Amino acid sequence: MYDLFEDICMERLIFDDVPSDDILLMYPYKLRNESILRDNICNMKNVIREYIKEVEQYSMCVSVISKLIWDSQKISMQNEADEHQRKADKLAEQMNDGISPYAWCIKKNFDKYIDYIHYKADYLVYLDKI
Fold first, then answer.
1. Which domain of life is it from (predicted)?
2. Domain boundaries, the chain
């Protein structure tokens, strides 16, 4: 993630449809007026909630596997986890289309002070250099 001394932009993603999770967006200030990033944010916004859902479903499936007794159950749950991972990977490709060498990363339950401003959100989606 970013060095706290680096200039960053923070903005909330606003969705036109039903109320949803609170999603905070963070990216380097120097990129704020870049048309490629602005276009990508619009595209990413269209799939971010579905991506989060798939990642969480994957994590849930993986956590259940160790609690199962029968191999057939474990295999079935692993197959379900793999399917959620495939869907998440496909959505990540859409989210990150055209912004290389950067990619969007997600952190759940973000609650921090940055430059003396308190930010709290269900999810932080931040742009990171890969």
1. Bacteria
2. 8-129
What residues does 10 pair with on adjacent strands?
26
Q: What gap in Å lies between CA 62 and CA 60, rounded to an integer?
A: 6
Residue 56's identity, in one-letter code, is: E
Pairing assessment for the beta strands 117-129 and 8-12 based on DSSP bridges = unpaired
Average pLDDT of the residues of the chain: 92
Do 48 and 39 touch, CB atoms closer than 8 A?
no
- Which residues are CB-contacts of 95 (< 8 A; sequence separation ≥ 6)? 40, 43, 44, 47, 48, 51, 104
What's the CA gap between 65 and 71, in Å, rounded? 10
